[in-house]
Amino acid sequence: MNRRSGNNQSANRRSFLKKGVLGAGTAALAVGLLPGGVAAFDQGADDGAPITKGDIAILTFLSALEQVEADLWIQYAELGGATTQGLSPIDLELNAKKIQTGLAPNYITALQVLDGDMPQYIADNTDDEISHHRFLNNYLASKGAKTVDLSPFAILPPSQVTGVPQNGRLTNLKQLTVDTTWWTRYRSSAKNPDFGGTFENAVPDLAKGQHPAIPLNDHDLELNPDGTIPNHLQAIASTAGFHFGFIEQGGTSLYPTLAQRVTNLEVLRVLLSIGPSETMHFQTWHDKAGNAPSITDGNLSFPNLNIGVDPNNGLAGVDVADEFQTNLIMPEPTLFLSQKLGPVAIIRPTSTAQGGAVAAVTSFVDDGLFLDPATNRSTGIVDVLMRLAEEADEARRRF
């Protein structure tokens, strides 16, 4: 997607929002705002600080992004989610409609190569993301603010696997370009993205080209004649495994970044309560992705990350092993705030200078999440998300 900069970009986005499907809803966020940016909503019960226009912008953006995440996780759950969880049933639902799970048993088998509990974790992650969007919308409504509904942009075709509901989706999981630098970012003791640190991909091939993370059709689910999993199906499942980590590390950083811009204490509590659940997701997926077997499927290879060799350049050594070894999933202490303070284990990045909300949308666009196969361009959802992101990043804490 081409991103224009400067006043023209902002003007075009404003024009789109006024004329587009969600224009009236987004513009209505201004309704009820008092002069000076203080909202005419209920005062925060804890500290008396008003809920500001910036607070509402942050909550609105997060609700929108959580709807995007719910959409993609529902697709993963439909194909690879658990159908039972012990003695209690899977109760996933959206808008009071039950979500059918586990429609692709052979895909589940390939996911379970990464971990036997993958179907359960997928179902649970899906449930969490749906709850995040629903809660944030309910919270906005309780304060008199406009809620978020991106469903007019649900135009992308889902998997053609038998049984998958053929309604349009917000996200495309069939042509992903997955950045796996989150893997090495959390293992570096000398670099922090907040200080300009850059990192290498754990699976370089995933960051090039376009790769499916879900089976496209029933043909992708066929097993080898001897009943074993073909490399192609395993590559799809392993791509999903690394994509899970990519998605959840975004929320892991985004919530603490935006929390620094919040004024109202109750709103701060909302962000500080939801954000850590994203971190729990990320830690789980970081662990499971490391179990992806070393295989090749066409132009996509999953390297053996435990042989002490950098898959990007072939270099070897102790430092390389530390960056890629699969069981090193705890955050390595690194630089934070000032080099004089010494290393500390932290979430990274969290600097507001990098524009947390805009950066999150940009990463989703680069991932190919909104790519329309009919046009080979991102859908109009990007303009709406970017506008909401800009407003969230413009929020400032008021004292």
Question: Can you walk through the features of this model?
Answer:
With 399 residues, the chain is mainly alpha-helical. The chain contains eleven helices and ten strands. The strands form five sheets. A two-stranded antiparallel sheet has the order 1-2. Strands 3-4 form a two-stranded antiparallel ribbon. It has a two-stranded antiparallel sheet with strand order 5-6. The two termini are 38 Å apart.
List the helices and strands and how they pair.
Layout (H helix, E strand, L loop, with lengths): L6 H13 L3 H5 L5 E2 L3 E2 L13 H28 L3 E2 L2 E2 L3 E2 L2 E2 L6 H7 L6 H25 L39 H4 L45 H29 L5 H25 L6 E2 L2 E2 L16 H7 L31 H12 L3 E2 L4 E2 L2 H13 L6
Antiparallel strand pairs: 1-2, 3-4, 5-6, 7-8, 9-10
Helix pairs in contact: 1-11, 3-5, 3-11, 4-7, 5-8, 7-8, 7-10, 10-11
Give the tally of structural domains: 1
Fraction in helix: 40-55%
Question: Structural class from helices and strands?
Answer: mainly alpha
What average pLDDT do the residues reach? 89
Largest sheet: 2 strands, antiparallel
Give the C-alpha Rg: 21 Å
Number of DSSP-assigned strands: 10
Strand residue percentage? 5-15%
**Distance N to C terminus:** 38 Å
What low-confidence regions span 5 or more consecutive residues with pLDDT below 50? Answer: 1-45
- Which descriptor suits the 3D outline? globular
Discrete helix count:
11
- What is the topology, as strand order, of the major beta sheet? 1-2
Features:
mainly alpha, two-stranded antiparallel sheet, single chain
The gist of it:
By secondary structure, the protein is mostly helical.
